[in-house]
Amino acid sequence: MIEVVTRKKRKASKSASKRRKTKKDLWAEYGLERPPRPRYSGLRGIVWFLLSLYVRQRDLKAYGPICINCGKVKEEFHGGHFIPTGECGWDGLALDEKNVHAECSYCNFRDKAKLNYARNLDLRYGAGTAQALRDRYYEYKHSGNQYKNLTQNEYREKIAYLQALLEPVDN
After folding, report:
1. Least C-beta-crowded within 10 Å: which of 20, 33, 48, 118?
2. Is the model more confident about 113 or about 114?
3. Rounded mean pLDDT of 115-140?
4. How many CA atoms lie within 13 A of 65 on its CB side?
């Protein structure tokens, strides 16, 4: 009797070592559980997740559960950017730790003026910090240059750096 090998059988017969990595596998490689709906995929998503986790952890420890923008005590925070991610490039301000802070969801999504954010940046890091971030942004915007995407190795280095900064979380 001749057996017909179908596409499904061929796929099933591949060894586990040859199977393609899933998104879940990539996160597991770094000891992380993939969130249900990460903002970005691949290594960029892992960096985004870790940076957000780190700045929320850092700000909670240093300033308590207070939104950098409105100053209200909140229970849940986002990693909110002073200069929005879509406008500042991945090798520039998007991953700059002085540009990302614990911010409540209301301020993160609705308050685009960020006036209190700027004032609080200056209080935390010294006068002129908010303006220095704006200057970097305007320099980029008007230079005609484009920020580049990070390489796979640069993303991996950033992941290792952020994981070293994170404090262990008890589950």
Report:
1. 20
2. 114
3. 92
4. 5
| Burial (CB count <10 Å: 0-12, 13-18, 19+), residue 143 | exposed
100-103 vs 78-81, strand pairing mode: antiparallel
Give CA–CA dist 76/55, Å, rounded.
13
Q: Which residue has the tokens 């802070």?
A: 101
pLDDT at 146: 67
- The DSSP 8-state label assigned to residue 85 in this structure reads G
Handedness of CA 146, 152, 39, 132 (dihedral sign): negative
pTM of structure: 0.81
Instruction: Judge whether 47 and 95 are in contact, CB under 8 Å.
Output: yes
Q: How far apart are CA 69 and CA 26, in angstroms?
A: 34
